[in-house]
Design brief:
Layout (H helix, E strand, L loop, with lengths): L1 E5 L2 E5 L12 E6 L3 H13 L3 E7 L3 H11 L18 E4 L6 H9 L4 E4 L7 H10 L5 E3 L7 H12 L5 E9 L9 H4 L8 H17 L3 E12 L2 E12 L8 E9 L7 E6 L3 E5 L5 E5 L5 E6 L9 H17 L12 H10 L3
Parallel strand pairs: 3-4, 3-5, 5-6, 6-7, 8-11
Antiparallel strand pairs: 1-2, 8-12, 9-10, 10-11, 12-13, 13-14, 14-15
Helix pairs in contact: 1-8, 4-9, 5-7, 7-9
Length: 351
């Protein structure tokens, strides 16, 4: 991994080709056989050399067995972990938030490094408690958008000052949700880890804080549309302070996510001398506009080695986590680095 200069902008470069995880064989245990484990984590882990999925487990034994059969893996009962089944080097927790504390406690005494699907915990207090119980290198949270080429480029532009002071950020994400193919987290109460903000909005909140490096924020306006105990639409304005940029100390954010209304699904940064925008999803370029909003060009982020697809982002998050854990070093997705997301969600979701 090194740094490369593209169009005068520092971007992250990762070696291309099939990457081999350095060192001895690493074993991974998968807790949770839901859609994200089946569609992303398991295929990615199976594609990595020197990585072996030791087992998969789920509260629904039939679902775990079906996933195991489809991927030539071993399925085990939850109560076997740490007893008849050895503790693996790494654990993926892809299960609902209320069920996670028992597994963090189970793996605390060993040396397993744990990758938890986003968000990391039910609330900021639980997030802090877990951080206090583990070395920083053993915990990560799956905010894989940090590996998108567009997000990395925006982060470096903020720090470079190439377009002047960062004045504001506008993010919109989501669309009208149909009931077809609805998963449990859609209807679960927000207090139990369901709802919009904790399952969709958390991603863009993390991107905002990660790109700017802001260490403080002040929530000024918020609006949540509730459906019983579940949030369906959220908007907010907040001010970020102590940015990691010599060219801006603070900036204003307008943020909107929805399962009720179609959104632009764009991430926009307004600078002193230009505006930059890109899709929420992975993309090969970032649009460049002048102060009047007229598009004047685009910045290509292809060829940087960072993720241009969601699958690549999942691959890179595991690669970084495994290699950093091997050195007992904090990863780019450390749970410590996303505490601010949990705390901001707490404020947004107050009733």
């Amino acid at each position: 991994m090194d740094q490369s200069d593209a169009a005068g902008i520092q971007v992250l470069r990762l070696d291309t080709g099939r990457t081999v995880v350095s060192g001895a064989q690493s074993t991974v245990g998968v807790v949770g056989a839901g859609s994200i484990a089946n569609s992303m984590h398991i295929p990615v882990l199976r594609a990595m050399q020197n990585v072996e999925i030791a087992w998969i487990s789920d509260a629904n034994a039939g679902r775990a067995a079906a996933t195991a059969d489809a991927n030539r893996l071993k399925s085990i009962a939850l109560d076997q972990i740490g007893k008849s089944i050895p503790i693996p080097d790494f654990v993926l927790l892809a299960i609902p938030l209320p069920a996670r504390p028992a597994y963090f406690d189970k793996f605390q005494l060993g040396r397993s490094a744990i990758m938890a699907e986003k968000p990391f915990a039910l609330d900021g207090a639980e997030h802090k408690r877990l951080l206090a119980n583990f070395p920083v290198w053993r915990l990560a949270c799956g905010y894989q958008r940090r590996f998108y080429a567009t997000m990395i480029c925006l982060r470096n532009i903020v720090r470079s000052g190439i377009f002047g002071e960062l004045r504001g950020i506008n993010v919109q994400e989501g669309g009208r949700l149909t009931r077809a193919g609805v998963q449990g987290y859609i209807d679960a109460s927000t207090m139990d880890g369901g709802g919009l903000v904790k399952n969709l909005g958390c991603h863009s909140l993390d991107s905002i804080l990660w790109i700017t490096g802001a260490s403080r924020y002040e929530l000024t306006v918020r609006s949540i549309e509730w459906d019983g105990g579940t949030d369906r639409h959220a908007s907010a304005r907040f001010r970020l302070d102590d940015l990691e940029s010599p060219f801006a100390e603070s900036c204003d954010v307008t943020w909107r996510v929805s399962w009720l209304e179609q959104q632009s699904n764009l991430f926009r940064l307004n600078f002193e001398n230009a505006s930059l925008s890109c899709p929420i999803r992975p993309s090969e370029s970032i649009d460049l506009s002048d102060g009047q909003g007229n598009k004047i060009g685009a910045l290509s982020v292809s060829g940087t080695g960072a993720a241009l697809t969601a699958t690549q982002a999942f691959y890179l998050e595991w690669l970084n986590f495994i290699e950093c854990a091997g050195q007992e070093k904090e990863s780019l997705l450390s749970a410590a680095s996303c505490l601010g997301v949990s705390e901001l969600m707490d404020e947004l979701l107050q009733r």
